[in-house]
């Protein structure tokens, strides 16, 4: 049994706390309490993941740092600070697998909402206006999914199932991928952007992906295309996106993640035509919390028994490496 497990929470503690406590000497910490409770802990369950609190509370003495950190999320960018990344004795795991299908369903919903202009329909309803009009179809439309991890793959499979033409963008170009068919690398990315009706961002936020959708990339996109971001806000140069939307080069965008969250009230994105904003909820479902704790409990049992952990993050790359499905 771990000497001590610290659970970082905000508002609500995770479900199944009795099961967790049965396996470990458990201490619950708010972000304010974490600096006092983290030193000397054997393990950390970060139930809150988008926070600077873990970096700020990380012990200066490596001997006092936990040997295992589990993020109750798919993204781990908040954990990739030098003291954790550079310590070979610290294992970082995540909730890979929990958000794949929910996020794919959300992306399909966003594409339908953009194509059919549901926001416009709801606005007409609010005004009691009867305004028959045509809308776009999605069958045969081209989608570039930028990010070929498990979430990107789930998105690709679902969009293909409804008749969309899907390809991927990743580090390794290939033409025989089981989910994407073609995966574009650096040399063919610009041509893929020019063909795509929808560009879906599902990549992790790393040093290599931060700001990857900048002004030149947006300029390379097909006129009238739409951008969907369910990855991380830092993937996109938001000022450049605002400029391209205002100029009418893009037909719209659906954004679930932002550089600063919550999105500031003064952001021009709130009022831009054709833009849909959601509060980082693409992967959230009514069963999410139970699924997250199930993954953690499995890993906690493995940790206690000395067995290999699931979902071990390559801390240099910033994601779980799956050799059977290259990124």
UniProtKB/TrEMBL annotation:
One of its GO terms (molecular function) is NAD binding. Residues 30-313 form the D-isomer specific 2-hydroxyacid dehydrogenase catalytic domain. Coiled coil: none annotated. Pfam families: 2-Hacid_dh (PF00389), 2-Hacid_dh_C (PF02826). Keywords: NAD, Oxidoreductase. Residues 108-282 form the D-isomer specific 2-hydroxyacid dehydrogenase NAD-binding domain. Belongs to the D-isomer specific 2-hydroxyacid dehydrogenase family. This is Putative D-isomer specific 2-hydroxyacid dehydrogenase.
